[in-house]
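Schema walk-through. Below, the input block comes first and the output block second. Nothing else is stored per chain. Lengths vary across the set, and this one has 126 residues.
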Amino acid sequence: QVHVAESGGGLVQAGGSLRLSCTVSGRTMRWYVMGWFRQVPRKDHEFLACINRNGGETTYPDSMKGRVTISRDAAEDTVHLQLGGLKPEDTAVYYCAARSLTGSYYCPSAGAYDSWGQGTQVTVSS
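--- output ---
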């Protein structure tokens, strides 16, 4: 069973930055395509970033370009999401997701991932 775990959420002031981390149990993270999403009540998951297995390709939505960076740390076997220029509207539960399946996929789609973490709350105060 794959266990995905996020960490690093909390309360941040507007204008600040945050680094979230994600680990996956069972196998080294190079086996997985990794994605970050966030969700607010009564809304679907919003795609933030994804990174392929070897870390050579990242994808971001236009709405987040310039504010978010996803990266792999091979030494720590961790994936990070760096988010800057935080605004109160960034307040959400942030989720890390892992894709173990091979084959073609569309990484901005939540349906591409087969394992999800429990989420970490990020609250941005004005």
